[in-house]
Every structure is written in C-alpha cells, then in structure tokens.
Design brief:
- There is one protein chain.
- The protein is α/β, with parallel strands linked by helices.
- The chain contains nine helices and six strands.
- Helix content is 46%, strand content 13%.
- It has a six-stranded parallel sheet with strand order 3-4-2-1-5-6, with helices on both faces.
- Helix 6 links the parallel strand 3 and strand 4.
C-alpha cells in the first residue's frame, strides 16, 4: 500500500499576514498605553522629522510626495500627543541648512507650509483643544506667502494656552544663540544691562523659546544620531531618543515606544 501524498502546504496570504500584524501591533499599543498612563509623560516633546527624501526613494515616490507623506505623519503625531496630554510639541520642519536644497524641492516645501499653516487657522481640532500655534526661526528668509500664512495661523490661535504647538521654520540653533548674543550686546551698549548680569537665564530670555520650558525629550527619526543644530541651548539636559524609522513611516507604536523609553530613564541633572 503506497504512502498518501503529503497535503500541499497552505501558503499564508498577504491579507492574512496583514491582519495578524495589525492584531499584534494593537496588542503592543494597548500594553504600552497602559504602562505610559501610569507615569508622567514629557511636558515638552521636540521632534526632528528626518527621512522624507529617503522614504520617497524607497517607495518609488518623487520628493514632493515624500514631503507630503511626512506632513500626514505630522497630522497623526498631533493626535497622539493630544491623546497623551503632552502639552508642548516643537517640530523641526525646515533648517537654515535645508535652504540650500534645489529650487524645485524648496518651492514644493513652501507650498506645503503655506497650505498647512492656513489650514491650522481653521482646524476644528486646534480650536477645540485650544492649541496655540507659533513658528520659531528666522521668518524673514521665508517667502512672503509663507510669512503671511504664519501670521494667519498665529493670530487665529494666539489667545490659547492649553497646548502649545511650535514649528521651527528657517531655524538654526547657532543662529538663534548668535542673535541672542547680539541682543545682549545691544543692551550692554545702551546701558540697560551690565556684563556681570549676563547669566544663563538672561541668554534664555533672548531665545525664540524664551517663554517655554526646555524640552524633556528630543526624538529623531531616520537612524541619524545627532541633533543637527536644533535647540542647541535648550537641549542641555534633554533626553535623546533615536529611531531607525523614516519620518513618513513613523507609527503610533513607534511613538509610544519613544515615550515609554523616556519614562524608564532616571533624569539626574548632574547629581
């Protein structure tokens, strides 16, 4: 009697794999949320959104579409922060170094900034949660249409204070410190400040972030482990978290892992 032929192995379909993956992710998110809600979250979260162009290349997209996908991720991030009641969010959207990129890429970015800022001014979520929107950086180097969009967004939300959403545009940490030094020098020259009165508090008072606490956590995507001229003065005691994921591919689970990592650290401040 011949042996029965083995039954063909049933191949797992991509659809089934997708369902299983989503289910496992949901379980992981739920568990992380349970842990996170038991501990303090960062009061001020700062994010270096890196990897749009590499994501576009990997997905076969053009650069403009890569930046658009990054914008969508930022929309999700705002919801995630609201859910955890992270009160202050600062995102690095455009550095002074980025201004050396091609004219075509910069034009596309400015279009995105223009539209996004005007949308913020009428965003129901922004007004429901009383989010104040502010742009930090040298706005004078930005196109006039973006400067006008900034004015519209800031004016529409300047009476809010429950949440603070800061967008770093045309921003450079060294430039910010240099400008603060210039302001201090003018005050000394004019007799309004003695050199001996200059301390760290005086320097902080002249920064773009003068009315904000320093970031508790700086989170960078894309696998790069540096802060790239972002909040150089303010990050002296910030916790740093680096993720290999490219910014447009960031998931809620990635975000929760960063917050949980922050909670598991003991901040010593030199003690």
């Amino acid at each position: 009697m011949s042996e029965p032929e083995p039954r063909p192995r049933r191949e797992e379909t991509p659809y089934l794999s997708h369902i299983v993956g989503d289910a496992l992710r949901d379980v992981a998110e739920k568990r992380l949320l349970e842990l996170i809600r038991k501990e303090p979250v960062p009061r001020h979260l700062a994010i270096i959104m890196d990897g749009n162009r590499r994501f576009a290349r990997a997905e076969g997209l053009n650069v403009k579409d890569g930046h658009a996908r990054g914008r969508d991720t930022l929309e999700g991030l705002l919801d995630w922060c609201l859910d955890l009641e992270i009160r202050i969010l600062t995102v690095y959207a455009l550095s002074t170094e980025n201004l050396s990129r091609s004219r075509e890429e910069l034009d596309g970015l400015m279009d995105l900034f223009d539209k996004a800022l005007r949308d913020i001014a009428v965003d129901e979520r922004v007004h429901r949660h009383e989010i104040r929107v502010r742009v930090i950086g040298n706005r004078e180097i930005l196109p006039a249409r973006v400067q006008e969009a900034i004015r519209i967004a800031e004016q529409a939300t300047d009476h809010y204070s429950k949440y603070l959403y800061n967008v770093a545009l045309g921003y450079g940490g060294r430039d910010e410190i240099v400008e603060a030094i210039r302001d201090l020098a003018r005050e000394v020259r004019d007799g309004r400040l003695a050199p001996e009165q200059i301390d760290s508090a005086e320097v902080s008072r002249h920064l773009y972030t003068k009315d904000l606490p320093d970031p508790d956590l700086i989170f960078r995507t894309s696998g790069e482990e540096r802060i790239s001229n972002f909040l150089l003065w303010q990050s002296a005691y910030s916790e740093l978290y680096f993720s290999d994921v490219l910014w447009p591919g960031l998931t809620r689970l990635d975000f929760l892992r960063a917050i949980r990592s922050f909670q598991e650290r003991r901040r010593r401040y030199g003690t």
